[in-house]
Amino acid sequence: MVRVRFAPSPTGLLHIGNARMAVYNWLFARRHNGIFILRIEDTDIARSEKKHMVQLMDDLHWLGLAWQEGPDAGGQYGPYVQSERLQIYHDICQKFLKEGLAYRCYCTLEELEERRQIAKLTGKPPRYDNRCRNLTDKQIKAFETSGLNFVIRFKVPEELLVFEDLIRGVCQFDLSLFGDFVIMRSDGTPSFHFAVAVDDTMMKITHVIRGEDHLSNTPCHIVLFHALGQKPPQFAHLSLTMGADRTLLSKRHGAFSLSEYRKLGYLPEAILNYMMLLGWAPRDKKEKFRADDIVDTFEIGTMSKAPSVFDQQKLDWLSGQYLREAEIERLVDLAIPYLQAAGFISADEYAIDRTKLKLIVDAVRNNISCMSQIAQETNIFFRDVVVSEKHIEFLTSEITQSVLLSFYNELCKTHVLSSEIFKNILKAVQEETKVNGKGLYLPIRVALTGREHGLEMYNIALILGIDTCKKRIERFLLIRK
Ligand code: GLU
């Protein structure tokens, strides 16, 4: 049975690059009818916060990911939060000490730093020199009585380590360059390497799918798996994602967090689709697809080795596609908070005219890529239109006036509007004024909306209604017939 895990550290908002690792683990589990596990790696006490853990779980749920085991889901290999597993790490560490696989190291930070500097100057690798590995009983006793703090280090075998990565192929590491690494800090918390290897072993993880930035950590994990008497899982190190500035996406790119996209009103299915396109493409090269469409054919080995570049324009394009096909009632629900925040509609839910809102949202959905843009696009329906000096000048020219007047007169003859009637009105204006194309549309659009571009004219007129349209035109008529 395939068992994979996503193991974020709750030190901030989950950015797209990191959430992408969750997506591929989830997809892989679905592809192989396996189990997807969420594990919270919060042993860095200074930087980890509960609120980040709550937020990231909420954001992943929003994205549509579901895990079968995790802090909230439970499971037989829990707890799934590392800070609740300290006793487990402690016990295994003691076992390692007893078996001679690990030892106490009393070197101080200052000593380590000094040796690092010397290694640097003499062109040696900056690894720990394994000095405390072979302390005599007498030396140990002396350190113990002096009350020095100690860490626990793992004895790394000096050998060539080879493993096959599902994406990167054969990887080789010379362990003699590594030095004995810390598995338990002096404050009794486990190191990242130790906690990962212990948990992956105990949670029976079969495949570790994570970012390429962890490739150089993998040898440390593999030697620990061996010490734990466990065959290492298979590894798949995914290439990372860069921002437009060609630096790796990180928490610095605050705007790229899942929470931020959610706040902006992107649909989760669009974000999920876009994330599945970062570093992978389905065989048919289609760009718009849902997880269900590709899950049966997804092969992790076909993922790109090269970094992907986050392309906001492409995401916006994709997001627009999903907005166009989404259930209108769902979009209305999503739109309401933004319209309320803009002060366009009251906070009283009974005061909301859903029929009108539906028309508005339906008209606007073609022109936006996320729901927060709705306020900007729809203010013409809720507020008086402000027309610039330049536009006033344009609207007062002779030819423009003839179009506006003719349009106004046609509106006066009508009591209802439909797409057909609107088309006929424009035809009549065209025949009367002999103006067509842009010369015909632009004066009407500018008078009604104060803008030169935007929604379909017919939609604007229909939503505004005949009376409002007349009023907005009337203000610019210099002569009335
Ligand atoms: N906690 C690590 C991170 O957030 C992930 C470790 C792993 O996947 O092995 O980068």
Top keywords for this entry?
Rossmann fold; binds glutamic acid; ligase; Helicase, Ruva Protein, domain 3; 481 residues; 19 helices; zinc ion binding; 4 domains; three-stranded antiparallel beta sheet; mainly alpha; two-stranded parallel ribbon; elongated
Explained architecture:
The chain is mainly α. The protein folds into 4 domains: 3-82 and 241-309, HUPs (Rossmann fold, 3-Layer(aba) Sandwich); 85-238, HUPs (Rossmann fold, 3-Layer(aba) Sandwich), CATH 3.40.50.620; 327-374, Orthogonal Bundle (Helicase, Ruva Protein, domain 3); 389-474, Arc Repressor Mutant, subunit A. The protein contains 19 helices and 11 strands. The strands form 5 sheets. It has a 3-stranded antiparallel beta sheet with strand order 3-4-7. Strands 1-2 form a two-stranded parallel ribbon. β1, α1 (16-31) and β2 (35-38) form a beta-alpha-beta unit. α18 crosses α19 (457-474). The radius of gyration is 32 Å and the shape is elongated. The termini are far apart. It binds glutamic acid (GLU). Glutamic acid is lined by residues 7-9, 41, 196, 210, 214. Residues 7-9, 41, 196, 210, 214 line the site of glutamic acid.
Task: Kindly summarize this structure in a few lines.
This protein is mainly alpha-helical and 481 residues long. It contains 19 helices and eleven strands.
Question: Measured on Cα atoms, how large is the radius of gyration?
Answer: 32 Å
CATH class of the largest domain: Alpha Beta
Which word captures the global form? elongated
Number of strand segments? 11
Describe the strand arrangement of the main beta sheet, using strand numbers.
Answer: 3-4-7
Q: What do the pLDDT scores average to?
A: 94
- Kindly report the name of the CATH homologous superfamily of the largest domain: HUPs
- Kindly report how far apart the N and C termini lie: 82 Å
Order of helices and strands: EHEHHEHHEEEEHEHEEHHHEHHHHHHHHH
Q: Which architecture of the largest domain does the CATH hierarchy give at level 2?
A: 3-Layer(aba) Sandwich
Distinct ligand kinds: glutamic acid
Q: Give me the number of helical elements.
A: 19
- Taken as a percent bin, the fraction of beta residues is 5-15%
* Proportion in helices: 40-55%
Question: What can be said about the biggest beta sheet?
Answer: 3 strands, antiparallel
Structural class: mainly alpha
The CATH topology of the largest domain comes to Rossmann fold
Total number of domains = 4
Subunit structure: Monomer.
GO molecular function: ATP binding; glutamate-tRNA ligase activity; tRNA binding; zinc ion binding
Keywords: Aminoacyl-tRNA synthetase, ATP-binding, Cytoplasm, Ligase, Nucleotide-binding, Protein biosynthesis
Function: Catalyzes the attachment of glutamate to tRNA(Glu) in a two-step reaction: glutamate is first activated by ATP to form Glu-AMP and then transferred to the acceptor end of tRNA(Glu).
